[in-house]
Structures are given as C-alpha cells and as structure tokens.
Design brief:
By secondary structure, the chain is mostly beta strands. The chain has strands at about 5, 10, 20-25, 35-40, 45-50, 55-60, 65-70, 75-80, 90-95, 100-105, 105-110. It is about 0% helix and about 50% strand. The protein is built from no helices and 11 strands.
Amino acid sequence: QVQLVESGGGLVQPGGSLKLSCAASGSIFRRNDVIWYRQAPGKEREVVGDITSGGISTYADSVKERFTISRDNAKNTVYLQMNSLKPEDTAVYYCYAAGVGVWGQGTQVTVSS
C-alpha cells in the first residue's frame, strides 16, 4: 500500500525557515499532482499550495512569495520550503497525493518566539 511520510516540522522563531519533506513509498509522485495542506488549531484544513506532475506549482495568497514547493521524482519526494515564517503559519502540515487519494500523517510546525 502506498504511504506518504512528512518530516521536517518543528519549532522556529518568527522570520525563520523550515523545509518539509513528503516522501512516498512508491513512484506515485511521478504521475500525480501533490497538494500541501495545513490545519491550525480550531480551524479548517486549508490548501497551502500544489505542484503538478510536470513541476508547475501554485500557492495560496497567504504564503505566496514566502513558500516554495518543489519535487524530486527520482527520490519520490516533494518539498515545501517555508521562509519568513509567521506565527499564523503554525499548523499541522499534510501532503496529499491527488489521484490516488493518499494522505501523509502530518508534521507540526510551530512559529513562536
């Protein structure tokens, strides 16, 4: 069964950076768009951005110019580079492989001084 595993979360100060990884157990990423979501306490899950199988990425307005999604198909991994982090970016971040309907377990990102 295909699995996605996120990593790279943690505690960071405002203005800092983190890079999240979403690794797949198989080669599904090569043929699938991947979407990053996040869910803050007491809020609904929201889309952060996505990347197509061809490497085209789009972003939510709240993270544009600060976050970058990339992929390495040879490693079956998608990345979320987060810069200039703000306290409102605090959330559990999930990756989702569209087309196969598989979620990762999530990784906590906390932005606090």
